[in-house]
Design a protein that fits this description.
Helix content is 37%, strand content 21%. The strands form six sheets. Strands 1, 2, 3, 4, 5, 6, 7, 8 and 9 form a nine-stranded mixed sheet that branches. The protein has a five-stranded mixed sheet with strand order 10-11-16-13-14, with helices on both faces. Strands 19-20-21-25 form a four-stranded antiparallel sheet. Helix 16 packs across helix 18. 33% of the residues are buried.
Length: 631
């Protein structure tokens, strides 16, 4: 067949298949154009999930009639003044969005530049461009997209239900709103308002938290810590959730590069590495990170939808993210998220006692009884609606071994007065020796429950501490510090260990022998597919060297670097800390309990154990009072 040039209409439809894959992609391109135009307010209206109508109105700089005609031509843009594809300082720059959308829909652009006395409109119907016409509009631009993909009906078959497509549009706008808190956004769909975001005030860091709280929820806003770091011209800022605030998916991880929402494997991997010490493997942190760097150092042109980027210095970016996040988490100290306490209260509340609005009804008042009234049965019997049957049964079982009933109250008081030696200890003197509650965030120890949990009183409520989990984290952090200060100490094996592997795995290990030796593992070749281990890290103790080497070979095949051994050592530190910490079931004195609380306050990351579980739960007095219907 002879070679021929494709008509412009078909070329634009092919481009639309790459850039405009669904209604949300069209919304993304158009909202980015509005942001680039300096808009401070962007209103989005969609119908039928964006398939029948998309309208986006902004108060940006606007366009005149000549610019309108150019805007719908392929590769026409105002965002590359130097024609340098590596110097991109805007969100949109390809000049493909408008002609691509116009090729598969009925597109109408209406715009009025700042200071102009009139507006102009231009329509593109399935790729056929009309002429600019006078129109009515205040300053800014309105883009109207009707019957998306009407020109390519086959594409409609691949779209999801209207509600699903609308949700994708909402996610797209939310991500752009996070990156630009100074812009107000609204989203209306199918006669219902779903998003109302006013422009956030204050400095950029606080404005971002306000916007993130509106989109990610109050829990995140209350339990987020700031991140601010810079290195070699690259800056990182944002907010990250405490480790005890985590989710089952990575949906609440939002990453931005130069104001552009991205899905970058390197950044996601860096986040995972920073939280690896604090989260279970199947949980993910909540965060929003904003990376800013010279446009020359990042390529945003590697994906048609500009959803992926490529960094020139990947090691610099990864190191900055990991270091900044670990530092921010360390600065948070022993803090645990408030959601832990709320979840505890939820678990304590009986399901049958919760009203439809989620509140707990106050307990029923005790029935009035005259002074001379006597219950029909003893304590072990039924009190009607006053004492639940289960509680009465437990009380009866508790008294049964004593046989004889307790003496009258007056008799017990008289006995106590007659025997001064039996008086209780001087609690006032003991209380004076306890440090002031105001000076300790985790309060002062008051009791130990089941030889496992420490109950401490604070000025605002109580704290319940899992003594084993808390001490496990303390031991773990001390071991890591020792590892950093003294390096990895090695111990020679009395009998070198011979490990059989497949030949590629053995070669990978031997190729990293020098790096592994720095980390405490000395290996050498011993024939095809065999590795001889002469020295191991002293931290491993009596470990299974063969399993370690085999696991390390698999990790090197996947990760391609020697960092996996460091991660392995940290895992071993965690295991050793677990076995070397205070065990559940051990009785502690008041001094020991308070010492544990003080160490937790002084140790970073002590709010969660090595496995990502919380080490303590804080309950505010107001919550406890609400639980018992006192407020």
């Amino acid at each position: 067949m002879p070679i021929r040039m494709l008509p412009d209409t078909l070329v634009n439809r092919i481009a639309a298949g790459e850039v405009i894959e669904r209604p949300a992609a069209a919304v993304k391109e158009l909202v980015e154009n509005a942001i680039d135009a300096g808009a401070t307010r962007i209103d989005v209206v969609v119908r039928d999930g964006g398939k029948s109508l998309i309208t986006i109105t902004d108060d940006g700089c606007g366009m005149g009639p000549d610019e309108l005609a150019l805007a719908v031509e392929r590769h026409a843009t105002s965002k590359l003044p130097s024609d340098d594809l590596l110097d991109i300082r805007s969100l949109g720059f390809r000049g493909e969005a408008l002609p691509s959308i116009g090729a598969v829909s009925r597109l109408t652009l209406t715009s009025r530049p700042r200071g102009a006395d009139s507006a102009w409109a231009l329509t593109v119907d399935a790729g056929l461009k009309g002429a600019p016409q006078p129109a009515a509009l205040a300053q800014g631009t309105r883009v109207e997209v009707r019957d998306l993909f009407a020109a390519v009906p086959a594409r409609l078959k691949f779209l999801k239900a209207a509600r699903t497509e609308f949700d994708h549009i909402g996610d797209c706008i939310e991500r752009l709103a996070m990156a630009h808190p100074g812009v107000a956004f609204t989203l209306d769909g199918d006669n219902r308002s779903t998003l109302r975001l006013s422009a956030a005030q204050g400095d950029l860091l606080d404005a971002r938290l306000t916007r993130l709280g509106a989109l990610m929820g109050r829990d995140f806003q209350d339990n987020a810590v700031p991140v601010q770091a810079a290195r070699e011209g690259v800056t990182l800022a944002g907010w990250i959730g405490l480790p005890t605030l985590h989710r089952p998916t990575a949906r609440h991880q939002h990453l931005f590069v130069n104001g552009r929402p991205v899905r970058d494997k390197l950044m996601v991997g860096a986040v995972r590495a920073a939280y690896a010490d604090f989260l279970p493997r199947d949980r993910h942190p909540m965060l929003a990170l904003f990376l800013e760097l010279d446009p020359q150092e990042v390529d945003v042109n590697v994906h048609p939808a500009k959803a992926e980027v490529r960094f020139r210095d990947q090691g610099l970016v990864r190191g900055l993210i990991v270091g900044a996040l670990k530092h921010a988490l360390a600065e948070a100290g022993h803090r645990a998220s408030t959601t832990v306490g709320l979840a505890t209260l939820g678990a304590l509340r009986p399901e049958s006692g919760v009203d439809t609005d989620g509140t707990i009804p106050p307990p029923s008042p005790l029935p009035y009884r005259s002074p001379g009234h006597q219950p029909a049965q003893s304590w072990g019997g039924s009190y009607g609606s006053v004492v639940p049957r289960g509680l009465a049964d437990r009380a009866s079982a508790f008294q049964a071994p004593h046989q004889a009933p307790l003496p009258p109250l007056q008799g017990r008081l008289a006995g106590w007065q007659a025997a001064p030696a039996a008086r209780p200890p001087d609690y006032a003197a003991q209380a004076a020796a306890v440090p002031p509650l105001d000076s300790h965030p985790l309060g002062a120890a008051r009791a130990q429950v089941h030889n496992t949990y420490i109950v401490a009183q604070t000025t605002e409520g109580i704290v319940i501490v899992d003594q084993h989990a808390a001490h496990e984290r303390l031991v773990y952090e001390r071991m890591k510090a020792a590892l950093l200060e003294g390096g990895v100490k090695r111990q020679a094996l009395l009998i070198p260990e011979l490990v059989e592997l497949d030949e590629p795995s053995a070669n990978r290990l031997l190729g990293r022998a020098a790096e592994l030796a720095e980390l405490g593992l000395v290996v050498e070749g011993f024939g095809p597919g065999c590795v001889l281990v002469r020295e191991v890290p002293a931290l491993l103790g009596q470990s299974d060297v063969k399993s370690l080497v085999r696991d390390l070979a698999e990790e090197l095949a996947e990760l391609g670097d020697a960092l996996s051994l460091k991660e392995r050592l940290e895992h071993v530190c965690g295991t050793m800390a677990c076995h070397g910490s205070v065990r559940a079931g051990r009785s502690l004195s008041v001094e020991e309990m308070n010492a544990l609380l003080r160490q937790m306050e002084a140790t970073p990351h002590s709010g969660q154990c090595n496995h990502g579980r919380p080490t303590y739960v804080e309950l505010k007095l107001s919550d406890i009072e609400r639980l018992f219907g006192r407020r």
